[in-house]
Design a protein that fits this description.
This protein has 68 residues and is mainly alpha-helical. The protein has a domain of 47 residues.
Length: 68
């Protein structure tokens, strides 16, 4: 098991996996302990808002343009 930990650390996966596990555990805890109203409020804050996509598309074209 120690070899796997060293390999993950060497490849740079140790910190992201640790953060991912922490977030997964935190949201699991929230799911078990929050009321339905609090869950609905959390979901409403996490929904994507409607943003115009045109400026993002222009930036993407500028970055990917030949010679850009």
């Amino acid at each position: 098991m120690e070899a796997v930990g060293k390999l993950l650390e060497y490849l740079g996966f140790a910190a992201p996996l640790l953060y991912g596990a922490a977030v997964y555990g935190f949201f699991g805890w929230l799911d078990e302990n929050l009321s339905d109203a609090a869950k609905a409020a959390l979901v409403s804050t996490m929904k994507l808002r409607g943003h115009p996509r045109q400026p993002a598309a222009r930036v993407q074209e500028w970055v990917l343009a030949p010679g850009g």
